[in-house]
């Protein structure tokens, strides 16, 4: 969500008498991974408490732009929310500030770290841990009651950005001028890829677009996976606003999909994040593509070359990860 929109929500909930912690938890339930960080919520709630009315930053005449200014922190946060797999080097290059400043803002100002190659809060709240614990218990019990049936019905989805150029070194990064990239939204199961939707740079996925893709997914399953629709699809998707929007949920229900619960900030419990995308990214690392079509061809070639055991392994790993999440009382599986 845009910064101004987030601040409007913070102001509204503050006016209702909610504390910064309550505001952040409420926004997490509604916006999922699109929610601003707790530090941002706390800062703006304090501003509104002091009587501030505007949603915009005050002008800073004569103040130099540094990596830790409010403007830069907001800009870095927006980039991470839009692409939680973005690298520190890419953010630094895009905003024209130093690598060290970006890393310091991410870890100190925003309190984030990388889990399964995604930027997430370094410290989960008690509520977030509880959600992860309860969902892991429920899904593990369901899986273990009939593993074969679960895997037969299971489908998962997530998105990742694929860049035209993925530099191998810091020196190569300085030489890169292309900023082209394509978003790949991959729907897959234990047999392989069912469908991929590609989106060009500058375009965004909204709820209406995603709802249309869910209907396309139903048709693709009917064509490629005999008996899966009849058995009842179990769909595990992200927790971003586009996935949890009313129009998206309605489309999933219309298609007969059962939406499995997935807690916010949990890439370590999502097969695309902890398995499929890291392997794809590793394969493409250091390669250069002269356009979107070349990127798409490379993605299709790599995923198409994998046999069913490759995909089965990634999804079967969920049992181990749910178990580990329960053992650590809802904390991150990866540290």
From TrEMBL:
GO molecular function, a single term: nucleic acid binding
Positions of the Mos1 transposase HTH domain: 7-52
One protein family per Pfam: HTH_48
Gene3D superfamilies referenced in this protein's UniProt entry, alphabetically: 1.10.10.1450, Ribonuclease H-like superfamily/Ribonuclease H (3.30.420.10)
Positions of region (Disordered): 52-71
Compositional bias annotation for Basic and acidic residues: 52-61
Record's protein name: Histone-lysine N-methyltransferase SETMAR-like
Organism: Branchiostoma belcheri
């Amino acid at each position: 969500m845009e910064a101004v929109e987030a601040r409007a929500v913070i102001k509204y909930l503050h006016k209702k008498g909610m504390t910064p912690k309550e505001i952040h938890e409420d926004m997490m339930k509604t916006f999922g991974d699109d929610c601003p960080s707790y530090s941002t919520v706390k800062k703006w709630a304090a501003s509104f408490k002091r009587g501030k009315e505007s949603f915009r930053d005050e002008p800073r005449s004569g103040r130099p732009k540094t990596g830790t200014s409010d403007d830069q922190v907001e800009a870095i946060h927006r980039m991470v929310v839009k692409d939680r797999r973005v690298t520190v080097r890419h953010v630094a290059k895009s905003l024209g500030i130093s690598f060290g400043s970006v890393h310091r803002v991410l870890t100190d100002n925003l309190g984030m770290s990388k889990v399964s190659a995604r930027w997430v809060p370094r410290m989960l709240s008690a509520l977030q841990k509880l959600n992860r614990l309860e969902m892991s218990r429920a899904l593990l019990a369901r899986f273990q009651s009939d593993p074969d049936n679960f895997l037969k019905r299971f489908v998962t989805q997530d998105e990742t950005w694929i860049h035209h150029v993925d530099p191998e070194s810091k020196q190569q990064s300085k030489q890169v001028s292309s900023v082209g990239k394509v978003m790949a939204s991959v729907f897959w199961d234990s047999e392989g890829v069912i469908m991929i939707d590609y989106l060009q740079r500058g375009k965004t996925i909204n709820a209406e677009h995603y709802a249309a893709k869910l209907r396309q997914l139903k048709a693709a399953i009917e064509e490629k996976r005999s008996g899966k629709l009849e058995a009842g699809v179990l769909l595990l998707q992200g927790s971003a606003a586009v996935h949890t929007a009313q129009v998206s949920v309605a489309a999933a229900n219309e298609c007969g999909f059962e939406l499995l619960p997935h807690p916010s900030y949990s890439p370590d419990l999502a097969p695309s994040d902890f398995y499929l995308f890291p392997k794809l990214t590793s394969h493409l690392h250091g390669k250069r593509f002269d356009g979107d079509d070349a990127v798409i061809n490379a993605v299709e070639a790599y995923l198409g070359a994998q046999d069913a055991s490759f995909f089965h392994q990634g999804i079967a790993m969920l049992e181990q990860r749910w178990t580990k999440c329960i053992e650590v009382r809802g904390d991150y599986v990866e540290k």
